[in-house]
Amino acid sequence: MRSLAERVLFLDPSVEHLSGFRNEIRKFLAEEGSSILRNRIIFCMDELVSNIIEHGNLNSRKQKIEIRLLSFPTFWKMVIVDDALAFDPNHAIGPTLESLYDSGAEGGFGLSALKKLTRLYYKRISLENKNQVTLFFRKGNHE
Q: What is a GO molecular function of this protein (predicted)?
């Protein structure tokens, strides 16, 4: 299936670039879908990219995070590829938001929220020593 639109971004791995990254996603999504869905997509993408920057142990600013945004008639597909440490977010998503809150945990809320908002697939690209995370968001009214 061919996408209706595609945009590829290469992000420097620093928090200073997150604002521009969010704006690029907003431009790509334009006015398609509800504002709630657009905000959820931005939250999910921001959470994953922030975790890569904060915890991925990227050794150099030369290493870019590749983000591929694709629009299909009934869904969006977002693909993030990075050179960070191997990390499958599906294995990190364990406890519920309630149990995290009750335990007084300081982290894990973002990844737990992702599980509720999107389908997330992880693949380790061994030959290139890269991570690939793919998210799918169904278009439609989510108000």
A: ATP binding
- How buried is 127 (Cβ within 10 angstroms: 0-12 exposed, 13-18 middle, 19+ buried)? exposed
d(CA 133, CA 125): 11
Q: What strands lie across the sheet with 65-71, from one edge to the other?
A: 5-11, 65-71, 75-82, 130-138, 119-125
The Cα 126–Cα 117 span in angstroms is 28
Q: Are 102 and 117 in contact (CB under 8 A)?
A: no
Positive or negative torsion for Cα 103, 104, 109, 111: negative
Structure tokens at 130: 């890269």
Q: Would you say 117 and 43 are in contact if contact means Cβ atoms under 8 Å apart?
A: yes
pTM over 0.90: no
Q: Cβ distance 28 to 88 under 8 Å?
A: no
The region of weakest confidence among 15-24, 37-46, 106-115, 119-128 is 106-115
Domains of the chain: 5-138 (3.30.565.10)
What DSSP element (H or E) covers 59? Answer: none
